[in-house]
Amino acid sequence: MDNHEYLSSLHDISKFSRDELRDVMNNNGISLSEASFKVKLNELLNLELISRVGRNAYCVPKSGVYKYQYEYSALAETIVVEIQENHPIMDFTVLETIQLNEFTNHQLAHNVVFVSIEGDLSDYAFNTLKEIYPGKVLINPKIDVFHKYWYDDMIVVGKLVTESPRDQKSQWATVLEKLLVDIIADPLLSYSVSESEYTNIYAEAFSKYAINESRLFRYARRRGIEKVILQLIRYSTDIQLRTR
Predict the structure, then answer these.
(1) What is the pLDDT at residue 13?
(2) pLDDT at position 2
C-alpha cells in the first residue's frame, strides 16, 4: 500500500511539476501507467497531501495549510436552494461579506450576499428572490444606491464575470482566488472592505491556504488588476510567490 513517504523529498521544494512528481515516484519504486498516475495525482490532491499552486505546478503544503473551504450562512444556502429549484440550469456564484471575517483585523458586522448570474439572466434570479425577500434585493446597484440601502442580510444580484474560476465540487461557491480578486476589482465589494485590510487579507489567505497562483492572476488579468495585485503582494506583504 502507498504510504506516500516519497513526498518527503518534495517538502522543501517551492513547486514541482507532474513529471517531477512522477520521477520521484519512479525513483521510489512506484511505476504507474499514465492513466494510473492521473488517478494517483487526483488522490493526492483530494487527500490534500499535495496542493495545486499553478498550471502544472504543485507543492507539498506545510503543516496547517489546507484547501480553502467556507461554511456559508443559512441565508446564503437558502438563496442557493431557491435559485437551483426555480432555475435549475442557471449558472451562478454566491459570495458574502462575512466570508472575509476569517482574514480581516476588523470584523464585518453586517452581511451582504452577492449573487452573480451568468449572461443576461440576472433579471430572472432577481424576480425570484424579490418575491421571497421583498425589499431586501437589489440588482446591479450603483455605489450611491448600494450605500443608501445597505443593511444587514441585503442581497445583491449582478452579472457573473465570464471565465470566473469555479469550485469543482460546488459550482456556485466562491473560490478563494476569486474572492481575493473581487475584493479589489468589484466596486461594491471593495466599498464594503477597507483598503487597509487588503494586506492582512492576502497575508492570512496565503499563510492558511494553498493558493492556485495561476488561477488568481489569470482572473485578475481578466478583471484588469493583475499588476495591482502583484504589486500589493510584492511590496506590502512577505508572501513568496511560487510561480513568479
Answers:
(1) 85
(2) 67
For residue 7, with 0-12 CB atoms within 10 Å meaning exposed, 13-18 middle and 19 or more buried, which class applies?
middle
Instruction: Please give the pLDDT value at position 1.
Output: 45
Positions of E strands within the chain: 51-54, 57-59, 92-96, 112-117, 137-139, 154-159
67 vs 177: CA distance, rounded Å: 11
Residue 74 has which C-alpha cell? Answer: 443559512
* 201 vs 6, residue with greater confidence: 201
Strands 112-117 and 92-96: antiparallel
Kindly give the pairing relationship between strand 57-59 and strand 51-54: antiparallel
Of 171, 170, 151, which Cα lies nearest the Cα of 160? 171
Q: Smallest Cα–Cα separation from 154: which of 126, 112, 190?
A: 112
Q: Which residues contact 169 (CB under 8 A, 6 or more apart)?
A: none
Local structure of 56: helix, strand or coil = coil
**pLDDT at residue 38 is higher than 70:** yes
5, three cell numbers: 513517504
